[in-house]
Structure formats: structure tokens, C-alpha cells
Design brief:
Elements: E1 11-13, E2 18-19, E3 28-29, H1 60-73, E4 83-85, E5 88-91, E6 103-107, E7 113-119, E8 125-130, E9 145-149, H2 151-163, H3 170-179, E10 185-189, E11 209-212, E12 218-228, E13 234-242, E14 245-254, E15 257-261, H4 275-292
Parallel strand pairs: 8-9
Antiparallel strand pairs: 1-2, 1-3, 4-5, 6-7, 7-8, 9-10, 11-12, 12-13, 13-14, 14-15
Helix pairs in contact: 1-3
Length: about 300
């Protein structure tokens, strides 16, 4: 029968790494109490006491948090559900800290590890927390990006996968689930786009360009917003009406070229239907918008 207490098979070495099973190569500690422990013949942690003299019960929350911190420290891509605006991805479906960055441990009110905190190479302050209630214990003003993994969802999910025999190694299974799509994780804060140069105009204020294309169909392009990319480039959000249907495109000036992107931020292929006409209509709409609206605040003018 499969062991029903998988967290009793996960240990912490003297250098802070989680291991499972016991290989006999390290002095093993309990990840929860940090006391030195030994394993039974079945590989489970033998009962031991904490500093207060009470018998220690390995904490899944503490062990999972330490696994999250280790994944981030090693440059693994921990999954977080993306933030979508329609079909456009606003915040990506993962959180990662490049190897070499300093990753700290967030300690909760019970003095237990409850998350990983670090600063990205671009200076953004990021926190990934293993706690419910949308990280209610976290001072959100201290972070630019905040993601949470809800223990009330993740732990039952882990237990279900363990019972199903998905993996015989609890630590391996834990890492796999952290890196894979799941419903327990979500972004709860990201940079407020209202603080970046972005404006939207009502329909009567749009300055669109109508361009006749092959077959007599007209293409109408209108700038509906402006925002900055992470590289400091100005991105123009453009609504294009063609053949009585509406589509959203993006236009950005990057490395000397004007790029036409779809609503997910991917480059549109020159083989796309009416590519040249749509691109030119978007460029003309940007020129009109720049002429009659607020000044563009970066060197990304597509004119």
C-alpha cells in the first residue's frame, strides 16, 4: 500500500536542500523543526520533538514553501496562471528568477517560511507567496509583482496526484506540480498600467485612416491606447475594422523597424491577408493620433 504521509519522506540537508528519499549521504534534518532526524526502514521520518518538547508533525506548507524557494533559486519556471485581457496576455504564465539573483525568504506571523522574494534584473520587486486569502499578510506596497499559490487548493491537489500514483517520489512530484499548469496559483498584483503613458479616446476623438484595398474593401484603423513595453518602447494599441469585422493589432518601433503585432504581442507574418494594407493603415492612424492627441513620451514614434 502506498504511504499516505508523503511529507514524512522529505528531508532537509545541512546545506538547506530538500531531499527524498534518504540516501545516507547527508545529515538529515526535519524541514519543519530543523531538528536532526533519522529515517525508518520504510524511509519515513521517525518521530521527534520540537524545541518546545512537543512531537513534530511535518508541515506541508513549510515543505512546499521551501520547495518553491529552491525552484526559484535554481532558475526554474514556477507556473502562475497568466493575466489575460481578452486574448492578450498581460502578465505571463510563469515566474522565474535568473540564476545568480539573491532570493530571500518571506517569514509569516508564525515565524515560518511562506514565500520567496527577490528583485528582477530590471529592478522589479517580486514576491511569490504560499498562503491563502490573496496574501493578506503581505504589504503589497513593497512589491511590483505579487503571485500567490493557495495552499487550500494546492495541497489537496498534491494529495490527489500522490494517491493516484503519478510519481513514487514525493519531492519529485511536488516539483513537477509547481512547474506545471494548476488552478492554485494566480497573480494578484502587477504594475498599474494607469501609471504608464497610456490614453484611450472616445470614438468621436479617434483619428483613423481609411485605406482602400484590393477588391474595393476599406480598412479602418484607430488608435485606442498607448502603453510602454518592458524595454521602454511605445506600443500603440490599434483597432482595425476590415470586411465588417474588428481586430486588435499593436504597432511598435523597435531597433529601427516598425513592427506589426497581433493582440498577443507576436509579430504578424508578412504572409497575413492584407498585411501591407493593414500595416500602412495602422501607421497612418498612429501619425494622426500623434498629431491631434497628447505627445508621445518615448523615442518609439512609428512615424
Amino acid at each position: 500500500m502506498k504511504n499516505l504521509a508523503p511529507f514524512e519522506h522529505i528531508y532537509q540537508t545541512e546545506n538547506g536542500h530538500l531531499v527524498s528519499p534518504d540516501t545516507g549521504e547527508h545529515t538529515l534534518n526535519c524541514p519543519t523543526s530543523l531538528r536532526t532526524v533519522v529515517s525508518s526502514a520504510s524511509g519515513s521520518m521517525l518521530p521527534h520533538v520540537m524545541q518546545n518538547g512537543l512531537t513534530c508533525v511535518p508541515s506541508p506548507a513549510v515543505i512546499i514553501t521551501k520547495a518553491i524557494i529552491r525552484c526559484i533559486t535554481e532558475g526554474q519556471r514556477v507556473f502562475v496562471r497568466p493575466v489575460m485581457d481578452g486574448l492578450r496576455k498581460v502578465v505571463p504564465a510563469l515566474v522565474v528568477a535568473p540564476v545568480g539573483l539573491s532570493v530571500g525568504t518571506f517569514i509569516n506571523s508564525a515565524y515560518e517560511p511562506a514565500g520567496a522574494i527577490w528583485k528582477s534584473a530590471k529592478g522589479s520587486r517580486i514576491g511569490l507567496f504560499f498562503m491563502p486569502d490573496r496574501a493578506g499578510q503581505v504589504n503589497k506596497a513593497l512589491f511590483d509583482y505579487i503571485a500567490v499559490i493557495n495552499p487550500d487548493i494546492f495541497i489537496p491537489f498534491f494529495n490527489e496526484c500522490w494517491a493516484s500514483g503519478m510519481d513514487d517520489n514525493p519531492l519529485s512530484l511536488l516539483n513537477t506540480l509547481l512547474l506545471s499548469p494548476n488552478s492554485a496559483s494566480e497573480w494578484i498584483k502587477w504594475p498599474d498600467k494607469n501609471n504608464s503613458p497610456k490614453w484611450s479616446s472616445s470614438a468621436r476623438e479617434w483619428y483613423a485612416c481609411d485605406l482602400m484595398v484590393v477588391g474595393g474593401n476599406s480598412i479602418k484603423a484607430a488608435v485606442t491606447g498607448i502603453e510602454n513595453s518592458q524595454l521602454g518602447e511605445t506600443i500603440f494599441i490599434i483597432q482595425v475594422t476590415a470586411d465588417k469585422s474588428k481586430h486588435e493589432f499593436q504597432l511598435v518601433r523597435s531597433m529601427g523597424s516598425t513592427l506589426l503585432l497581433d493582440n498577443t504581442g507576436n509579430a504578424v507574418s508578412p504572409g497575413f491577408r492584407s498585411f501591407d494594407s493593414i500595416r500602412q493603415a495602422c501607421i497612418n492612424a498612429v501619425r494622426s493620433y500623434a498629431k491631434y492627441n497628447k505627445p508621445i513620451q518615448s523615442g518609439g514614434n512609428c512615424a
